[in-house]
Specification:
Blueprint lengths: L1 E7 L5 H9 L3 E5 L6 H8 L3 E6 L4 H13 L4 E5 L4 H9 L4 E4 L7 H46 L3 H15 L3 H12 L1
Parallel strand pairs: 1-2, 1-3, 3-4, 4-5
Helix pairs in contact: 5-6, 5-7, 6-7
Length: 187
């Protein structure tokens, strides 16, 4: 597993780095300038991002938001900041797991596994939600076209649907496309 480590905190990561490297993970650390995180993600292409910070700064949170929007990855944040505002801001920015404590060396691998598993589950749910929204929008367009056909040609709902369906098959075109064309033609 490729892990990008963003170290912006006072807590030493050396024992954690040694454990992860010994477990065969490929590591890259960004300690000097957390503003370079997005560039490092593009270059390194990590599987997970591990962030060590005393308190998540606005700059780091903004970068995490951009990262989540353009290149979503599981992210684990270790912070000594236990305020509910910081936790909410970090999770809103895309942090998968927020740990309020020093990094426990023995627990790091299970934490990364939980983050990766939770992230994958959330991504699947997002994809299902997006697919459902697309299907609902498609259904809405088809129903609108069907209603227009029913009104224009005094058809039953079933007859209007069959006409849309037949036209789509004749043109080897999705029903939504046929419905959109019909709506434009009749408006």
């Amino acid at each position: 597993m490729k892990i990008l480590i963003v170290d912006d905190g006072d807590c030493s990561l050396e024992p954690v780095l040694a454990l992860l490297a010994a477990a065969g993970h490929e590591l890259q650390c960004e300690t000097e300038n957390t503003r370079q995180m997005l560039m490092r993600v593009d270059q390194f292409r990590p599987d997970i991002v591990l962030i060590n910070t005393d308190s998540p700064s606005r700059d780091v949170l903004e970068q995490l938001c951009v990262l989540s929007a353009h290149n979503p990855l599981p992210m684990v944040m270790f912070s000594s900041d236990s305020s509910s505002q910081s936790i909410a801001a970090a999770t809103d920015a895309g942090v998968t797991v927020y740990m309020v404590q020093d990094i426990e060396i023995a627990g790091i691998v299970p934490i990364l596994t939980v983050a990766e598993t939770s992230f994958r589950r959330e991504q699947k749910l997002r994809q299902l939600l997006e697919a459902a929204a697309l299907r609902a929008e498609e259904r809405k367009v088809i129903d609108t076209a069907k209603g227009m056909l029913m009104a224009a040609h005094d058809l039953s709902e079933q007859e209007a649907y069959r006409r849309l369906q037949q036209c789509a098959m004749d043109q080897c075109t999705p029903m939504r496309t046929v419905a959109e064309r019909l709506i434009r033609a009749l408006t």
